[in-house]
Give the backbone structure.
Amino acid sequence: MDIQSKLEILEKQARQLEVLDERRGQWLTAVNNYGHRLLDGMPTRKAYQEYDLETMSNYTFEIQDEPTAVETVIGEVEEWIDKPGLNPASGGHIGYIPGGGVFPTALGDFMAAINNNYAGIFYGGPGAVRLENSLSRWVCDLIGYPKTAMGNLASGGSIATLIAVVSARDYKNINSTNVRQSVIYLTEQAHHCVQKAIRIGGLGEAQLRYIPLMDDYRMDVDALRRIVAEDKANGLNPFLVLAAAGATDTGIVDPLDEIADVAEEFDLWYHIDGAYGGFFILVDEMKPLFKGLERSDSFVTDPHKGLFLSYGLGMVVIKNTEAMYKSHQYKPSEANYMQDAANLVEEYSPADLSPELTKHFRGLRMYMPLKLYGLNTFKAALEEKVYLTRYFYEKVTELGFETGGYPMLSVMMYRYAPKDYSLKEANDLNKNLIEIIKTDGRVFVSSTNIDGVFWLRLAVLSFRTHKYHMDVTLELLEKGITDL
Ligand SMILES: *Cc1c(COP(=O)(O)O)cnc(C)c1O
């Protein structure tokens, strides 16, 4: 067959990918119906649905040569993806760190997916890049960074943290000649993505110092100062300190301003992890907790947690944009096909500030909710989460539970430990309370282990979580300890 005849046949088939017929409407309607079904059913759906491990492990999603009807695919999603396990969109999700996934995230994703705008390089997608950079700038302003600071919209807090750690590494000239003498300061409360970023960022051989915690699980800054000074006196190279503005396990905010003093005194890069707690800075009453944030060098916050977006957006902002750029820029000489783009410097390109080049245009998934609701709604929702946690704290204390202290934000620890119980007996009792809650399924709680003590955790951050869910949890806990 000659080329032209072959092309005629292939074009006819390939044009199937462009949906210009009634199929577009059919597919949209089917997905739209799915969305309504899902959201309308949310209040009655369980937060956790038990499933058969073997059945799930054996199920495979098969790819075939011929097309499948949209209803069939959606049916498969509903049965095999939406049903089993944790329902992260449920208001009953009060474990780990929830968020929920506000609807306009989906609208922004949908628009970004069909326009397929390019948010990697300013030259190609100036509007898309301007939007992403404007959102980073907005967070910079929120936390008091100077106008020259910049950020990046990554896929989540872990990649955002990696960008910060790598920028710190290069800015502080940590390399194979000095990595073993270089020291990083953090606490046991640091999220494990920090250790991962350190390892992936080639800092696995650096020395990690776990700074002792005070009774309220915050970093002991006197100990930090003493340990850094000792290291320095011993000829080591202290270069990075990491603090939490909302630790995942305990919900505490480290003494940010005091840690900034130490960072300045010893010339350390100061990173603050606000993946969970960062957006509470929007709540007036919470602002004092964040004093000192503006003195940090880098900061991470997760819009897919604190702004309730669907999963897929973590943000890093860095005060020294040049440091961020130096670590992540591409070398035009190694990518000749981008030479058209290489000479433009009007606006930082996300591709020069992160490991990613081509990526999902994430700006719209954040912009749509912020614009459609307005900030006041977010502020109220965040404040509600704080007050729900305080409500829970009071009630659970009345029930005789021990707690990890008064909640600073919207995460707290609690456990039931009768006086005559050994540690093991108390741990088993609390594990059993989790099972009771899991079997009921209306709410989903998680746990943590601190120095061998098993704690239940409350994490209120789904926009769908309200007083009802606190009351259900309290009711189940009360029943669990009464039936002992
Ligand atoms: C969730 C979380 C992270 C990790 O973020 P991902 O978006 O899950 O990658 C880092 N730090 C803290 C404090 C977190 O709560």
Observations:
- The mean pLDDT is 96.
